[in-house]
Amino acid sequence: MEVSETQEERDKGRRAEEVAVWFLRLNGVFAIQGFIVHPDRVSTYPLAEADVLGIRLSNSFEGVHRSRTGLAKMPDHEVLTKAAKVGAVMKSLALVVEVKAGLCRINGPWSEERAGRAVFRSNMERALGRIGCFSRQEVVTAAEEMNRSLRYEGQSFVAQYFAIGGTKNLDLAARYPRLVQLTFEDIATFLHQRFRSFPEKIVEEVEIDQWPGFGDSFRRWFFLGQRDPDQCVRWVRNYIEFGS
What pLDDT band is residue 206 in, cutting at 50, 70 and 90? Predict the structure, then answer.
């Protein structure tokens, strides 16, 4: 029997998702949170849900202009740039992301197929079809490969499943070698490097409506001068666990 989540667990999960989305946005990902896959006919429940669907385009970059050196390009996290590469070619990346405060997991219903008509359509096919990065013909092949290995390499786009959590899941890694797992320690280390190297990107105003929740809390903490990487890891973990 499945045990319902407590309010505390739901709040922790929401904060974990905040951290993950902020990290993705800082790496050039256009993200949609809480993407629902609806059935083809009236139903009591949706078929599946992704914590985040996203796209990162192949030419994405950001930097700061400095008077002596000109444009200083900010490096994005290698887990995203590597996921977008096929050989030496950088491609656009379609992301399906599951976020957990604890152990990394994937959402089981993505691989479920239902027949109600002459055509079978998986939940992954529905999601990739809505993203729109593949043709109607290719999206079927892409969804089948995503269901098998959680990765598909197309001509212009790569589709990749990401599992973000507190710790990596060794069982999942053995079952799906192509799954990308990322921990909040990885994210905290990236945040520390990004804002220490590019402090111009931290805004100084007292209130920033565009950085609600985690983003504004992290900005305030960073301005206190607490820039030790281990402290940053602890702060991110505490934010997810306690909201402070």
Answer: low
166 falls within a domain: yes
Give 115: exposed, middle or buried? Use CB within 10 Å, 0-12, 13-18, 19+.
exposed
d(CA 111, CA 83): 21
**Residue 77 has what DSSP assignment?**
P
pLDDT (0 to 100) of residue 119: 38
The reported pTM is: 0.88
For the chain, what is the domain count?
A: 1
138 in any annotated domain: yes
Helical (H) or strand (E) element with 85: strand 85-86
Taking the C-alpha atoms of residue 206 and residue 15, their distance in angstroms, rounded to an integer, is: 22
Q: Determine, yes or no, domain membership for 210.
A: no
Eight-class DSSP state of 103 = B
Residue 195 lies in a domain: no
